[in-house]
Amino acid sequence: MFLNSLSGRFLILTTVFVMLAEIMIFVPSVARFREDYLLMRLEKAQIASLALLADAQITMELEDELLENAGVFNVVLRRDQIRQLILASDIPSPIAQTFDLRGVNAWVLIGDAMRRLATPEPEVIRVIGNPVRDAGLLIEVTMDTESLRAEMLDYGLRILILSAVISVFTAILLFLAVRSFLVKPIRHVVDVMSAYAEAPEDARTIIEPNAGVTELREAENALMSMQTQLTGALKQKERLAQLGGAVAKISHDLRNMLTVAQLFSDRLERSEDPAVKRAAPKLVGSITRAVNLCESTLAFGKAEEPAPRLDRVMLAPIVDDVIGAERLAVGEHDLSFAEDVPANLALRADPEQLYRVIGNLVRNARQAIIATGAPGKISVSALDTEGDWQIRISDTGPGLPPKAQEFLFQPFQGGTRKGGTGLGLAISAELIRGHGGRLELLATGPEGTCFAIVLPKSAAALDEAAE
């Protein structure tokens, strides 16, 4: 319905406000008209009295004609402190009110005018004013209010008609202006949003800001930013779905290949070569973890990370395995490792998942330090408190970039290095949440980065994580 639209309501409001403004003009205009009418009667009465003073011998017919032309019943002129009845005729009724127009303020004039319009019964009033051109001290007339009220009503009607015409004309102009400068741009935004809702992946439906009004231009810019981000997120979601299917297929085949490698690695353990004996356990452990990771990836492709298999595990061997594997990847770079984990510290966790989390954090630190080309150090420490176990991984690397801090633990957005995907941190945070704990960034900057793994001791936190 038109009246429920922005244009319709604006048209109605404009008409109402313009009419209110015209009414505010109408009231003082009518009061001024009444004052001018009374002053004109005083002036005509003064002219008639001057004619009589010029010739004292006038007939009664001429005197009546002068009073009729002046529109009054009698005229009193005060000159030289003498009050003199100049012209007189019969008064049809007693005088009801007296109005003195000398030095009266606007509010009194407005009040008298409104009372006159509200009083339909004719009355005889006395009007006092100053003579024109100082032709005396004052002039006083008596007159009927019937013609005064009729003239006021006629003048007021003309003012109201003119006000209505001006209101309608102004409302139409404002309606057209609002429709051109506001309604059409808003309608354009609505059409663009509707088109975008039908095909949000199509970048061609993203709005191009072109509004001339500042507020609408800001709204269009905000809408364009939101549409751009949403389109990118939808495309990323589609790519992630495709990537998930591909990873699941790759993990399935890779698991089969690693299973074969695992069979051959078992034979290496029986070798008599001392070097092979030292390397074989780590090789077997790495292949076993790779097989488990492939199986977990297949499970994740179906739903999510599997629930942790909690057990009492010693932390020191896990940290030692992680650091031992990372030392092999350092090469000739000047990078040292430090362990500060009590040998008897046992905690409740899934050993494979905990190894993945610590491995991801240590690997990220190693890659960040090596990328700088400067010497560095990576430290792993553990703390047993009353309510939880805390594992801290700190390094002397360059710190996390701003984007990584903003989208920390978000896949494909929170990468800690150039070309990184951020999957490691996202998976690690999910695995720790499965333990009922949390993965926190304690500090980062030019002096280095420190992450903390907090695992609760209470069973309530584990039950909540399981839910």
From TrEMBL:
- Specify the domain of life of the species encoding this protein: Bacteria
User: Which InterPro entries does this entry report, sorted A to Z?
Assistant: HATPase_C_sf, HATPase_dom, His_kinase_dom, HisK_dim/P_dom, HisK_dim/P_sf, Sig_transdc_His_kin-like_C
Keyword Ion transport present in the record's keywords: the answer is: no
Membrane spanning segments where? 6-31, 159-178
The record ties this protein, via SUPFAM superfamilies, to: ATPase domain of HSP90 chaperone/DNA topoisomerase II/histidine kinase, Homodimeric domain of signal transducing histidine kinase
Instruction: List the Gene Ontology MF annotations in alphabetical order.
Output: ATP binding; phosphorelay sensor kinase activity
**Catalysis: reaction(s):** ATP + protein L-histidine = ADP + protein N-phospho-L-histidine
| SMART domains with a match to the protein in the record | HATPase_c (SM00387), HisKA (SM00388)
Give the matching CDD domains.
Answer: HATPase, HisKA
Source species, please? Candidatus Rhodobacter oscarellae
What is the name of the protein in this document? histidine kinase
Keywords assigned: ATP-binding, Kinase, Membrane, Nucleotide-binding, Phosphoprotein, Transferase, Transmembrane, Transmembrane helix, Two-component regulatory system
- UniProt-listed Enzyme Commission number(s): 2.7.13.3
Tell me the ranges covered by the Histidine kinase domain, including all copies. Answer: 249-459
Pfam families membership:
HATPase_c (PF02518), HisKA (PF00512)
